[in-house]
Write a structure and sequence with these properties.
By secondary structure, the chain is α/β, with parallel strands linked by helices. It contains 8 helices and 13 strands.
Length: 286
């Protein structure tokens, strides 16, 4: 990923002749310098996907002028598009419960500069992880959730996310099911890590069920959250091999290593505008 300030233009539209030519000509006319270019045509659904990273200094009139002048092309090709500025990082909220491995890994990677975002806060339904968060000088918000208080708890969380102008939500082993209304408010912007290689072993205790089934591979899946539990578009997956003498505890330990890596990659791809939605699937420009 370029370290200089850059703009990223992402496009999804019906596939037709001339899209790349029109976009490239538009950029070249303005002296834009393309640092990275990615294309994909989904022939089964006649959709075209495109991602261009542009050197910001090559477009001295700025992103707003570029976007305004690009709008007629977008309308002509019926594009769903976005122009992001690396100088305006996404504001991220991480939701966690008691397990710390995914959360601590994300915070470590963020501090090391691997995740280009504004880590705005961590929200938890337990107080166990407060110290791990506040040592990074990140605000920690406790929002307890009980069977009787769920509507009020999620209403308070929703208000907090709105007040903090959160763009992206990450569920780092947050052991609560988000209400459908909240999922609908952040389409393609809530990222979950599921401790299973979906679509196998959805729901709870997947490692125990995988052990009972005698699987030879276990994995983790990071996906966008929708109102349908564990059914959202998949961003990233990985697996690790299991031997016959591995125990359930071994599977859990191996699985947590995979979960950390998969969630971090999925979040980085999202933050770098590498993930484009294609129905219930994704196009990921790695």
């Amino acid at each position: 990923m370029p370290t200089e300030r850059h703009y990223t233009l992402t496009i999804s539209c019906p596939d037709t002749v001339g899209i790349v030519a029109a976009v490239s000509h538009f950029i070249a006319e303005r002296g834009g310098w393309i640092l990275e270019a990615n294309h994909h045509a989904d022939r089964d659904h006649a959709r075209f996907f495109m991602r261009n990273t542009l050197l910001a200094s090559s477009l001295p009139d700025g992103a707003a002028r570029f976007a305004a002048e690009f709008a007629p092309i977008a309308e002509r090709f019926e594009m769903t598009w976005r122009l992001s500025d690396s100088a305006v990082p996404r504001r991220v909220a991480v939701l966690a419960s008691k397990l710390d491995h995914c959360l601590v890994d994300l915070l470590y990677r963020w501090r090391g500069g691997e995740l280009p975002c504004d880590m705005a806060c961590v929200i938890s339904n337990h107080d166990d992880l407060r110290g791990d968060v506040e040592v990074h000088r990140i605000p920690f918000h406790l929002v307890p959730v009980t069977p009787d208080s769920k509507p009020q708890a999620f209403a308070a969380m929703d208000q907090l996310l709105t007040d903090l102008q959160i763009d992206t939500i990450v569920l780092a082993r947050y052991m609560q099911i988000l209400p459908a209304e909240l999922c609908a408010r952040y389409p393609g912007r809530i990222i979950n890590i599921h401790h299973s290689f979906l679509p196998s072993f959805v729901g709870a205790r997947p490692y125990h069920r995988a052990f009972e089934r005698g699987v030879k591979l276990i994995g983790a899946t990071s996906h966008y959250v929708t109102a349908d539990l564990d059914e959202g578009p998949i961003i990233e997956q990985d697996v690790v091999r299991i031997e016959h003498d591995d125990t359930v505890d071994d599977l859990v330990r191996f699985g947590r290593d995979v979960e950390r890596a998969v969630l971090a990659r999925a979040l980085r791809y999202h933050l770098e505008d590498r993930v484009l939605l294609n129905g219930n699937r994704t196009v990921v420009f790695r």
